[in-house]
Amino acid sequence: MDVYRSCASIAVLRPAEQCSPTACMPTFEMLLLHKPRKNDAWQLPQGGREKGETIEQAAVRELQEEAGITATVLGKSEHVYQYQFPASYRRFRPDNVCGQRVEFIMALVDASTHVQVDNREIDAFVWVKPSELSQYLKRVEYRKIAQAVMEEATRFSSQR
């Protein structure tokens, strides 16, 4: 029987300002990480959940491993992203994992937080405003989920 790999992702926001010629408004930026690969290289910090871990524990661990930072967890998102692996990828898997089910944690860091990637698994990072997501996230379905999680995290952050 085919199963989906359990994956934890973390939407990390930091406070920022969006300025026009007349005023600056507080807003948030979200952390995206770049994997050294050809397609779908930009994504939120994420990775597989290890045995015994909760989604929150896995997301916090992945953030530390991939970006070298810790964050204040705001909560778990209501959004889930589930997809099938391409047949070309599945051919090389020795198991019955047919795809991935990604659950999201929302978190907040200070504006001065210093990201440190390992230059192996992750080779770059960027902080983006909501209007900039489409420049980095090319897969429409994933971009819509990331935007929805960012909006949800922004609501949580604003209530703090």
Provide a short characterization of the protein structure.
Helices cover 25% and strands 39% of the residues. Strands 1, 2, 3, 4, 5, 6 and 7 form a seven-stranded mixed sheet that branches. It is built from four helices and seven strands, in the order ββββαβαββαα.
Could you describe the 3D structure shown?
- The longest helix has 19 residues, at 140-158.
- The chain has one domain: Nucleoside Triphosphate Pyrophosphohydrolase (Alpha-Beta Complex), CATH 3.90.79.10.
- Helix content is 25%, strand content 39%.
- The mean pLDDT is 91.
- Strands 1, 2, 3, 4, 5, 6 and 7 form a seven-stranded mixed beta sheet that branches.
- The chain is globular, with a radius of gyration of 16 Å.
- It has four helices and seven strands.
- It starts with a strand and ends with a helix.
- A hairpin with a 4-residue loop joins strand 1 and strand 2 (24-34).
- With 160 residues, it is α+β, with helices and mostly antiparallel strands.
